[in-house]
Design goal:
By secondary structure, the protein is α+β, with helices and mostly antiparallel strands. 21% of the residues lie in helices and 33% in strands.
Length: 165
């Protein structure tokens, strides 16, 4: 069910998050970015992108959190120490308590798509440690972003294994 992946040229116009070179500390024995860091960098990019829909980095201090529920990871091209990378995010949909997103990790040095993280994430009330409906302002901003991203001229490269419930 997976759609074809968008090209670098299609993705590069989206806002860039976590722009950085791959640090030597993230290298594995194969001389490239260790798998655990692809997910970490993509997750940081998603977190940065959520600020624009009203989910600030200090949201936990306000009694709210975003918890990851499911991931599907696709590794497409290695990135090596010193290569410049960035994350590009497409918000696909949301339900009352969850949201569905794609994070594309771009290899800016070689101008190619390196990695795709598809994620379902949840709104959690930290007072109860349970899922809770998105706050109204966040829900409205997410809906606006979902509608905006739906106009992108390429199909989302979803795995078909994740879905909102």
């Amino acid at each position: 069910m997976s759609a074809a992946h968008p090209t670098y040229d299609q993705l590069v116009d989206l806002p860039a998050y976590v722009q950085q070179p791959v640090p030597i500390a993230f290298e594995d024995a194969n001389g490239h970015l260790n798998v655990r860091h692809y997910t970490g960098i993509a997750s940081e990019g998603l977190d940065e992108s959520l600020v624009e829909v009203g989910i600030p980095q200090m949201w936990p201090a306000m009694g709210h959190a975003v918890f990851s529920a499911e991931h599907h990871l696709t590794y497409l091209a290695e990135v090596r120490t010193g290569d410049r990378i960035s994350a590009r995010v497409r918000l696909l949909g949301r339900s009352e308590r969850a949201a569905h997103a794609l994070v594309h990790l771009l290899d800016e040095t070689h101008q190619r798509l390196s990695f795709v993280m598809e994620e379902i994430f949840l709104h959690v009330d930290l007072g109860t440690r349970r899922t809770a409906p998105w706050p109204d302002d966040v829900a409205v901003a997410m809906d606006r972003k979902i509608d905006q991203d739906a106009t992108l001229p390429w199909e989302p490269d979803v795995s078909g294994s994740l879905a909102l419930r």
